[in-house]
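Appendix B. Chain record.
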Amino acid sequence: MTDQTYAQLSCYLVDDDPSITELVTLLLQKKGHVVASNTSSIKALPEIIAQRPQLVILDIMMPEMDGLEMCKLLREQAVLSETTIVMLSSKTYEFDKQRAYQFGANGYLEKPLKVESIVDELYEIMADKMELSFWGIRGTLPVPGTDTVRYGGNTSCVSVSFPQDRLFIFDGGSGIKALSDHLLRNRQQSIRAKIFISHPHWDHINALPFFVPFFISGNEFEICGPAQGDITMHQLISAQMDNVYFPITIKEFSASVHYRDLREDVYEIDGIEVRTMLLKHPGYCLGYRLNYKGRSICYVTDNELYPEATQMHDKNYLNHLIEFIKGADVLITDCTYFDEEYPAKVGWGHSSIGEVTRLAHAAEVKDLYLFHHDPDHKDDDIDRKLEVAKNLLRQLGSNTGVIAPAEGNVVRV
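Structure tokens predicted for this chain:
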């Protein structure tokens, strides 16, 4: 069920099957929306341009003019730039879905109609939100046991789903196995995803060999991340699965898997703006910022914030980081230690809860998500860490919120 509501939408439906137009019209009208329809694509085209509806629903297989051609013509009309176009078709081929997106469709729904959910599915497409899912929130190594049940014991993995079947995955710690199971359980076919590795320390790549979609033909992935000097991303992943360390090599991947070296820069990947920043951590480590239609998610782990009173404090770096995450809707960041633990861990590449909280406040982020917890920290410790952050934000008079996500949590941004 969507959390988005719409008072009244102007809708236009085009389908050469009158039973479909009648059913969808009825379902939308029951929700209070105004609906026009036509079984002729040729007649519908000028009417849509003249009426400028908020939502257009098109069949693909129609005489006179097919839905893909019509979608392309509608997208050429400047007056329809804000109109949401959804394809509704019995064609379930991945090729047709991708063509629809290329021609400007915002969403693709399959027939036969799911009467009980089609209106909510249309709302979801119109909301055009990112869906952020947490699969592993620990740092350093997995910590299974009775004391880590509430937040989970897996290491770093977060995914962000976008409209048009775009999937970004951040890090391949042990949490990526749960994501793999989720994708297989939903029987998702032709999975296409970008996998962003922050850095190649074991807790961020140790479960990549257990990501089953790599071994399924028809899937396509691009693994992106920072090269380590003269060692490329391809070489890093290949070496991890060398048969000395693991019985299956990357040669066994049945999916199409590509590799891309990133540096501190600005990229457009699958139509999404991706900004990267080098972080304070041993080796080359990247933080990521996704900017999508006025909303943003920052994934910044692992990273060491030296307290202002210490000799290693770098004001220029801190200002650069504040600018990088400025105004983000979501900041997911390393808060490995309590403040009293940090002095014994200086130079290990991780931050304390106090420094992270002050960072989020200074950058005016909307919500701080606590991430990458020390393996000695149990669920109760994370609870206490959350309270420390809340109290500090209260003292600062901050508008920033703070959340301690658990495995399985889903956030729509």
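Further analysis of this model is presented in Appendix C.
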